[in-house]
Amino acid sequence: MLSKILLNLLLLLIFLPDNLNTGDGENIKYINSFSGKKLPITRDDKWRNIDNGVDFKSIKIKRSDSGLDIIIKLLRMDLKLVKARILYSKNPETNFQNVKNIAGKDNIIAAINGSFFDINGNPLGLLIADGKIINNRVVTHPIYSGIFYVKDDMPYIVHRDDFTPVGVTQALQVGPILIADGKDTEGFKDMHSIHYRSGIAIDDSGRVIIYATDTNYKGISLHEVRQVMRLSDIGCINLLNLDGGGSTQMYISTPSFSEHIAGSADIPVVIGFYRR
After folding, report:
1. How far is residue 175's CA from residue 78's CA, in Å, rounded to a whole number?
2. Which of 85, 146, 80 is nearest to 110 (CA)?
């Protein structure tokens, strides 16, 4: 009887799915923290299709020095099938709203917090929302290095110096850019500060990926984010940090799936994604 139990346990260990990554062994993936310690990825879900041209996955990372988890939620979209819009909406009383209210309900697939703003809800960099120029100033501060924009229904992430506004209907300036044309960027500070993070990326197939840390868990550094977004099944070639901290919010709504990272502060700028 004992030998049969041991045999069953052995078979269970052999056929345990790789994507669970719950034990020691070669299937464990790691990223490096600023201190040089390896942080194990204890769960790395496979991409799950949740709508036409839309996939979701979640990654859990254990911060070894504290034993506390980091959870990053990612959404991947084909903009041939999904429309991206920059949304700017201030509540008349507070100047701010949550991501769900700004994005609305009609044909919504997902929304994520966008760019930096002042205490009155005014954007601090270039902002073009649905063809309307909200702020035409391109800020030259090192942090504001990137611009996400849409032109002819195609997504782009570029350095601010390479941006041309002709024909652009949606654009926001934020930063820093973490990966540009497949290469790590340099020249900015706070790479190792731990905060809640959100961002937008373009992968090697031209799809848009948005991500946010689940604010019920712990934060992550930009250095660590960059390693996550370079994982082989994510494959980002351009990666732009969005406003994070308390502004970190993400909302997903499809007939088969929903997700909401609420954040702790309302915002005025959102990137929304809608069914065509």
Report:
1. 23
2. 85
List of residues 6+ apart from 209 with CB closer than 8 A? 74, 75, 76, 77, 200, 201, 202, 203, 229, 234, 236
Closest CA to 114 of 106, 104, 125, 105: 125
Q: Which of 142, 243, 237, 156 is nearest to 197 (CA)?
A: 243
Percent of the chain with pLDDT over 70: 89
Rounded Cα distance between 108 and 39, Å, is 35
How many beta carbons lie within 10 A of that of residue 116, not counting itself? 19
Residue 264, Cβ neighbours under 10 Å: how many? 11
pLDDT in tens, 106-151: 899 999 999 999 999 999 999 999 999 999 999 999 999 999 999 9
